[in-house]
């Protein structure tokens, strides 16, 4: 009941038929994010961030092009002022949303 194996042909796609060529890889450009909270950046954060539905450190970094530590400071500042409220408090990711019925 033993099956006899057929010899591999060039069309069967065996290992010896074609060796995979590895690509050189893509180089990601270094992000040029702001590391100092200047007046235009501060004004933009205070104006735009309270209108976001979903606010996290990652969102601020991506949309406002600021450094991670700057994003954390901005989020803490907005929460202290009551413009945003916390949804999830986790050691890895803090998630906030805009305050409804805010103190505008």
UniProtKB/TrEMBL annotation:
Keyword Lipid metabolism part of the UniProt annotation: no
Q: What is this protein called?
A: 40S ribosomal protein S25
> Please, which domain of life does this record's source organism belong to?
Eukaryota
* Compositionally biased tracts (Low complexity): 1-15
In terms of InterPro entries, this protein maps to: Ribosomal_eS25
Which keywords has UniProt assigned to this entry?
Ribonucleoprotein, Ribosomal protein
- What ranges does the record give for the region Disordered, renumbered to this chain? 1-30
Q: What is the lineage of its organism?
A: Eukaryota, Fungi, Dikarya, Basidiomycota, Agaricomycotina
